[in-house]
Amino acid sequence: MDEQALLYVNEGSRQFAGSKRHNSKFAVMGIPMDITSSYRPGSRFAPGAIREAAGFIEFYSVRTGVDMSEFGFDDVGDVILHPSDVEINLRRIKDAASFVYRKGKFLISIGGEHTITTGVVSALNPEDTCVLSFDAHLDLRDEYMNYKYDHACVMRRLSEMGFKIMEVGNRGISKEEIEYANKAGIPFITSHQVKLLGPREVSRKILTHFSGCRNVYISLDMDSIDPAYAPGVATPEPEGLDPSTVLDIIDLIIDKRTVGFDVVEVSPPFDHSGITAVLGAKMILEVAAAIKSKSP
Ligand code: MN
Ligand code: MN
């Protein structure tokens, strides 16, 4: 750790399935920021809950044939955050993410509210980086209650920074967001359309839109998944995707260009059976296995 990152990262936090392998290509970082959640707060507890759940699932990926227990994860700890200042936190998150990227690692971030993605992605170059967001919501609002760094504005801020965006699984959308998406050239495939098209056609559309990108970042707002599978989220929205469809799409689009992944918006106080945390851990495991299978 260099001094800058040491200042912001608490290495004493729990580790992903107890995994602390410095030589692993996969860095896991907890970002327990939960300041702008409008409905069901508690995502600050998700890094701990997902890391713990990861200790109780198999590390062998049947989908890819990759045994992640051979490679493990380098859990770098939690970003130390200011209790109320979102903009200071976004700078800290950006610094910590830059540090991990400079080491050549694949960064897996565990939120926290979706706003953390603004910080993690801003460490990448907007000129050649595309962002795929799975989300019930478009998060394209210019502001929410007069605040621009709300969790409802994440993709709007990244789009304004110059990142090329595409969104999947959406169904809780405002008219203002559709107008911005059309104006800014941000395609989105609603959850209903995903069901009609199927994972192959959806992934084909994503790969076409991202054909000019050198880096691809994937953000998974867990409310993209149906509340039947992921009840413990901050803003649940009915008629969502099923987890297998999300993994099928991810498997089909992951390639050597994929540089980072995050799981956000899990709210453990509302995850009464703990299944949302287990699903979050499973998603991380399968994404890492898919990366490994595409670029061994
Ligand atoms: Mn979101
Ligand atoms: Mn959402």
SSE inventory with pairings:
Layout lengths: L2 H6 E2 L15 E6 L14 H9 L19 E6 L6 H17 L3 E6 L4 H6 L7 E6 L19 H8 L2 E7 L4 H10 L3 E3 H7 L1 H11 L5 E7 L21 H11 L4 E7 L10 H20 L2
Parallel strand pairs: 2-3, 2-4, 4-9, 5-6, 5-8, 6-7, 8-9
Antiparallel strand pairs: 1-3
Helix pairs in contact: 2-10, 8-9, 9-10
Bound molecules: manganese (II) ion (2 copies).
Strand content: 15-25%
Q: Please state how the strands of the largest beta sheet are arranged side by side.
A: 1-3-2-4-9-8-5-6-7
SSE order: HEEHEHEHEHEHEHHEHEH
What is the correct CATH architecture?
3-Layer(aba) Sandwich
SS-based structural class?
A: alpha/beta
Report, as a whole number of angstroms, the end-to-end distance.
26 Å
Bound ions, cofactors and other small molecules, one mention each? manganese (II) ion
> Based on CA inertia axes, which overall geometry fits?
globular
The CATH topology is given as Arginase, Chain A
CATH class: Alpha Beta
Task: Extract low-pLDDT stretches.
Answer: none
Q: Characterize the largest beta sheet: strand count, sense, and whether it forms a barrel.
A: 9 strands, mixed
Q: How large is the count of helical segments?
A: 10
**Based on DSSP secondary structure assignment, what is the total number of beta strands?**
9
Domains (count): 1
- Specify the helix fraction band: 25-40%
CATH superfamily: Ureohydrolase domain
The radius of gyration is 17 Å
Mean pLDDT: 94
